[in-house]
Design a protein that fits this description.
The structure holds two protein chains of two kinds. By secondary structure, chain A is mainly alpha-helical. Helix content of chain A is about 75%, strand content about 0%. Chain A contains nine helices and no strands. Chain A is globular. By secondary structure, chain B is an alpha+beta fold. Classes of the chains: A mainly alpha, B alpha+beta.
Chain lengths: ~160, ~475
């Protein structure tokens, strides 16, 4: 295996990005175990590929992009599409997430909206950066963000009614 | 909307912060562990799970077992158990094998259950599943003995109980990734076809209508091999063939040429009216979108007279150009006994929307002059920015980070299979190739003839291999309609 990445560097990358990668994967996988597998696979790719990046942001974007691709693959796999649902949408023992209204509302959105919400609000990416990461057009990301907020608003209104 | 914005920026982010990767040490372990070991283990686990599910489907026990929470939870529990450590021990392999065996239930009503899985018009292969790691196929041999097999050999996961010991040994030696033996050995019914699949590449490496590919030199050392072959009228030609080879070996001290005793007139194959003509059915299984409707295939019209491309991409893309850039030398296939292997590099230009991508593929030729070529978007090709060709018109900047938004993954992802099938039917003495393209038989099946005259599909009657108790009319009824463009 081509191993150009130093172990210390690898550890730093894990510490730095594994959580955000997990959250992006979670937007598609909807269960933590699968999301963790996706993250793990992304790091395997990272080790195998040992890509060189000029800027740290590129590294992060690369990792997120790979995670998104892998998560999409997982979701589209025959296995995933034909299995029965297991109620494992949040980490075991962390019921506080379920109780968070806005969190639950976001989780009810389609994956593409969840991802935009996560990257925009939580990770603080701009729309252009999200477009680069997701491989979408800037306008598409903007539309998804707007649509996501509309959907969330509807959810809010329905719940208040 | 204002409150929502605030909630998203505060409450949502606070909640999301609690979603963290639970065991980062596990990730760090990746550094020290050989990646291929990890991937291999993951492949086994994935295979076990998928194979089990597929076997359930194929077995007909319950076509919708995968929607059964109990089944799923059992599978899930097993997978979880195997994810706790990283070693691939023999015991673990055995356990996985047992798992597959456990789910691999044979039931008498498999035929009726599999009707909906019918995937070609020939009747040998009547069902197929393909996921990223599994090609499970149910097959029948024209009699009432239908069996479903899900095989994978590269990890030693297989069911050999239905094989003769010699066959099992030969298969082991061949290292073929998947073998499908559509025959009921126990009743000695006709072994009509043997398919050899390349698991990883989704290639049909060969289709043998006799034992040509599997009568190994080692078998020939055993004079009683032929006698132990299954009884039955249909097996006689094979027995004779094998016996002839054994005798030849005794007399000459070496194995005969692979086609020395090959007599098409004694082999039950659709060669009627073709003389010594290779006739190849090329099927393109792809991911099954619907367990009832079967594989959803998208046929792409032939690129040229000798190349057909098939895509599972729901948005059929256009194959613009195809050319060989290099031919390799013909040499024995590393995996398959009696199969010549010729690796060439070719390039196909595929147009997807406004983007054009290039892919490479390899080709294989067997000594019987069958040939299969295919290409697929493997993980590395599509995930790696370097190996995946960027759309034409790109600036050429090969910095990986620059290519992130330009990778040819949009609309393809991993599930998409692009299969190229090229059919040079005959390898001439001077090692040149003759091509005879036959238009597709159906949307997912292309038939190829080596007959220089008969360049079109034979009549259904000729295409049928020894109909038994079923009329062609019946057969046609069961054929599902395919999506075509």
């Amino acid at each position: 295996m081509l191993m150009r990445i130093e172990k210390q560097e690898f550890e730093e990358v894990i510490q730095k990005y594994s959580d955000v990668m997990l959250r992006c994967a979670f937007a598609y996988c909807e269960n933590v175990a699968d999301a963790e597998d996706v993250v793990q696979e992304a790091f395997i790719r990272y080790l195998k590929k040992s890509p060189h990046f000029r800027e740290e942001e590129h590294r992060k974007a690369w990792l997120l992009r790979v995670v998104i691709n892998l998560a999409k693959n997982l979701r589209r796999s025959f296995w995933q599409r034909n299995k029965s649902e297991l109620s494992e949408d949040i980490p075991a023992g962390d019921n506080s997430l379920r109780k968070c209204e806005i969190w639950s509302a976001v989780q009810a959105l389609p994956a593409k909206y969840k991802l935009v919400i996560e990257l925009y609000y939580h990770e603080g990416y701009t729309i252009e950066e999200i477009a680069a990461i997701t491989g979408s057009k800037r306008s598409t990301v903007g539309l998804r963000l707007t649509k996501a907020k509309e959907l969330l608003k509807n959810i809010y209104e329905e719940e208040s009614v | 909307m204002k409150d929502l914005e605030i909630d998203l920026k505060t409450e949502y982010t606070a909640a999301a912060d609690r979603l963290i990767f639970r065991n980062k040490e596990r990730l760090l372990d990746l550094y020290d562990e050989p990646v291929h070991t990890r991937a291999r283990r993951a492949g086994i686990i994935r295979f076990a799970a998928i194979a089990a599910a597929a076997a359930l489907l194929l077995s007909g026990t319950t076509a919708f077992a995968m929607s059964n929470p109990k089944v799923m939870s059992e599978l899930r529990a097993l997978i979880d158990r195997h994810t706790t450590d990283l070693d691939i021990t023999d015991e673990k392999k055995d356990e996985l094998e047992d798992l597959i065996g456990y789910w691999h239930v044979q039931t008498p009503d498999i035929a009726s259950k599999l009707e909906n899985l019918r995937s070609n018009s020939y009747g040998e292969v009547i069902g197929g599943l393909h996921t990223g790691d599994l090609f499970g196929v149910a097959a029948k041999d024209g009699s009432s003995n239908e069996r479903g097999y899900v095989y994978r050999y590269d990890y030693g996961l297989t069911h050999k109980e239905d094989l003769l010991p010699e066959e099992a040994a030969a298969i082991e030696q061949s290292s073929a990734d998947i073998l499908l033996l559509p025959v009921d050995q126990k009743t000695g019914s006709k072994r009509s076809w043997v398919y050899v699949f390349d698991f990883e590449g989704m290639r049909i490496l060969g289709k043998y209508n006799d034992y040509l590919g599997f009568v190994t030199n080692e078998m020939l050392e055993d004079p009683e091999y032929a006698e132990r072959m299954p009884d039955g009228e249909c097996c006689e030609p094979y027995k004779e063939f094998v016996q002839n080879r054994i005798n030849y070996k005794k007399e000459h001290g070496e194995a005969p040429p692979i086609d020395k005793f090959y007599d098409v007139n004694k082999v039950e194959c659709p060669t009627e009216g073709y003389d010594n003509v290779s006739f190849l059915l090329c099927q393109f299984p792809t991911e099954m979108d619907d367990p009832i409707e079967g594989p959803q295939l998208r046929f792409v019209p032939p690129v040229s007279n000798d190349v057909t491309a098939v895509s599972s991409d729901p948005e059929v893309f256009e194959v613009k150009e195809f050319y060989f850039s290099e031919y390799g030398d013909i040499h024995p296939h590393p995996k398959l006994e009696g199969v010549n292997h010729k690796v060439g590099t070719a390039t196909i230009t595929v147009k997807d929307g406004g983007n054009t991508y290039l892919f490479e593929f390899r080709m294989y030729i067997d000594r019987n002059s069958y040939m299969q070529t295919s290409t697929w978007l493997n993980e590395d090709e599509y995930m790696d920015t370097d190996s995946a060709k960027v759309p034409s018109g790109d600036s050429g900047d090969d910095n990986a980070e620059e290519d992130i938004s330009k990778r040819p993954t949009e609309g393809y992802d991993k599930d998409v299979q692009l299969t190229l099938c090229q059919f040079p039917i005959r390898v001439n003495d001077d090692q040149t190739l003759d091509y005879h393209y036959v238009p597709p038989v159906s949307n997912d099946v292309t038939a190829i003839s080596s007959d220089p005259i008969r360049r079109y599909p034979p009549s259904p009657k000729l295409r049928r291999c020894k109909p038994q108790g079923r009329t062609l009319h019946d057969h046609g009824k069961r054929r599902r309609k395919r999506i075509s463009i």
